[in-house]
Amino acid sequence: MNMFSNIRVFFCLVCGAVAAAQELNWNIQAGDQRPDQPRVQEPAAVQQEKQSFHEPLAWKFPEPPAVEKPPLPPDFELKTPTPANSISAVCGENSVRVEAKKDLLGIGKPVQAEDVTLGGCPVTREDPDNQVLVFESELHGCGSQLLMSEDSLVYVFTLIYSPTPLGGSPIIRTREVSVNIQCHYQRNHEVSSGVLKPTWNPFSVTKASEESLYFSLRLMTDNWQFARPSAEFLLGDMMKFEASVKQFHHVPLRVTVDGCVATVVPNIDTVPRYVFLENNGCLFDSQLTDSSSRFLPRSQDDRLQFELEAFRFQQDDSGVIYITCSLRATAAAAAVDATNKACSFSNGRWMEASGSHDACSCCDRNCKTGGQSHLTGTDAQWEQEAVVGPITVRERPLS
Predict the structure, then answer these.
(1) What are the DSSP calls for 292-316, one per residue?
(2) What stretch of H or E contains 263?
(3) What is d(CA 13, CA 17) in angstroms, rounded to the nearest whole number?
(4) ∠ at Cα 141 (198, 152), nearest 5°?
């Protein structure tokens, strides 16, 4: 019995050791997992898909803020330029003396003496006390021109100001200026310096022409009383244009329209383009297209009105056109002639807006041929280009 008891005890000890070893091996495999915590399961794989919208989004980019017109300052007026009185001349029996203030342009800035010449002749001397440039020349010197009439001799000199760039920079703040100075002498009579009175175009006239001449080209209402607030037309409408020039210190002026070009952009060098007025004031649209385009009879020298029948460019669906015209002003006292006219074609003949129909005889040729005299005081002219647009011409709806 003792032997069987010892075998039984030994067997129990072996079974307990095996059970303890198995429990120790399980704890080692579990690592840091505490027996009282549940096992963490790995998440299942997520299936991704593109999000779809069954209804359109209500959100949109905000509208840009409205551009407000800046308020005009109260009592705002453009300054009227004051003509400069900076040149004087004394015509002697055999010579001329010209004095020019160093503030030649009347803007408070002296010019450089080397930039001013009398017909190419430099300054004879300077008067530093009075800030004056002095030019002296014989009547036949410094590029003078001799003009003769039945009872007088006229010596014409030209005072030229050609500004050089400022301080080595490529800019200037003045423009080239030339002033004619004339000395008149009676023919077949004795000449005495005591009674001579030079007649010459003062610098104030030139300065005023630079700063006080304003051209305008605008669309007008049907009654010609107001500027047209809309630039929209239908095919068959008459577009009414008024060219004008505002003058301040000038003698009375006459405005003319030398030429006009229609384009789809504000550039006359593009294609397509339609030249409907050229040759120094000949309105060809009525002759080319049998339209009703015409100049209206002139009622004022400084205003010129013309009508142009609305049109569109072929194969251009926008219907947008720009009208670019070359405007010119001459002295109203100058004669209406081949290069200074406003002609319309009607009933098989050319007619001039002021009634001088003979001036239109060159419209079917070249009106720029033939010379014009430049010896009078009425041939001065000024030119400027003006653009109207965009003008929209729509098709007329059918009833």
Answers:
(1) --EEPPPSBTTEEEEEEE----TT-
(2) strand 253-263
(3) 6
(4) 40
> CA-to-CA distance for 132 and 157, rounded, in angstroms?
18
Nearest to 126 by CA among 112, 146, 108: 112
Euclidean distance between CA atoms 186 and 36, whole angstroms = 136
CA distances from 394 to 109, 227, 228, 271, 397 (A): 54, 21, 17, 20, 9
CB atoms within 10 A of CB 201: 15
List of residues 6+ apart from 139 with CB closer than 8 A? 94, 95, 96, 155, 183
Size (the chain), residues: 399
CA–CA distance, 322 with 74 (Å, rounded to integer): 34
Count of C-beta atoms within a 10 Å radius of residue 109: 11
Retrieve residue 128's tokens: 């530093």
- Phi (first) and psi of residue 347, to 5 degrees: 55, 40
Cα gap 161→152, rounded to integer Å: 29
Provide the 8-state DSSP code for 166.
Answer: G
Q: Which residue shows structure tokens 């051209």?
A: 215
CB 274 within 8 A of CB 255: no
Q: Looking at the predicted structure, is the pLDDT value of residue 341 above 80?
A: yes
- pLDDT tens-digit profile of 134-180? 999 888 888 888 888 777 888 888 888 888 775 565 645 566 778 88
R_g of the chain, CA atoms, integer Å: 45
Neighbouring residues of 132: CB distance < 8 A, sequence distance ≥ 6: 99, 100, 101, 102, 126
φ/ψ region of 284 (left if φ > 0, alpha if ψ in -120 to 50, else beta) reads alpha
User: Bridge-partner residues for 101, per DSSP?
Assistant: 132
* DSSP code for 94: S
Give residue-wise pLDDT tens across range 249-276.
567 888 999 999 989 888 888 888 888 8
- Which residues contact residue 384 at a Cβ distance below 8 angstroms, ignoring those fewer than 6 apart? 215, 326, 327, 328
Pairing of strands 381-394, 232-234: parallel
> Which one, of 312, 348, 314, 290, lies nearest residue 239 by Cα?
312
CA distance 241 to 233: 13
Cα gap 252→236, rounded to integer Å: 37
Q: Contact, 217 vs 228, CB < 8 A?
A: no
Query: Facing residues of 77 across strands?
Result: none
Q: What 3-state class would DSSP assign to 392?
A: strand
